[in-house]
Model the fold of this input.
Amino acid sequence: MPVRKLTALALYTTLSLTVYAVESMIPPLIPIPGIKLGLANIITLVVLRRYSPGDACLVLTARILLSSLLFGQAVSLLYSLAGGAFSLLAMYLTGRLLGRKMSFLTGAMGGLTHNLGQLLTALVLTATPGVLAYLPFLALSGILTGLFTGLAAAFSERLLPSHMRH
Done:
């Protein structure tokens, strides 16, 4: 990997981790487990649009591992990895299908599938079908926060220097 690209991806990872850290200091808006803004996804979506899916996966995985190490517990790592994997795949496929002009829908699909991935992880880990009662709330919050992150990613991408591209 060229040094310039490695440096850019390291900067995106640092920015993503910083956004995550700041967001973790914001009290929950709604007292339902799993509902948060997901602002670090803005960076993931920018990297996905500017680089390859593999590069976005690298930045996302580094952020998840570092944030779990610095701010979370071991079990939160599983939820984050599952949500991140579902989200990244959905954002990649949605972006390919709809193109760059529909980043708000790409973000919405990412938010929705992130929450679905986490909910499925909870179902597998707890073997409690009752966790599915959260589905309507998590689906709605995932779509709404994803719409915001998609719009924010499109806006942010226009402000970033053009040399921070692949």
